[in-house]
Amino acid sequence: MLAGYLALVVFGLTSDPPALASSVTGGRVGAAALSLGLTSGAMVWACVPHPPAGATTLIVSLGILREPEQLAVLMLAVVLLVVQGIVINRLAGIEYPVWAPRPAPS
Asked: Would you say the pTM of this structure is higher than 0.85?
């Protein structure tokens, strides 16, 4: 989300209408590319590949969600999905999240 909003700021698109409601301009393409590059780079750096993060950053960088209230709801939804994943997996007896790879069984 932060990479998408940063891309909007860098390209001066914070007050422009969403790309889907207007046209796809060079600025929008640049914002999308920058946000995806930042997101992908952060995931590679942190060794946590997660393709849906690319969709989240595009939602923001294309201007679909750009107001602070909308971004807060987006982040709340992400947190709720993580909590749901933890609860469901714990109820199923699966330790989740596993932050480090487990050693292979001998």
From this structure: no
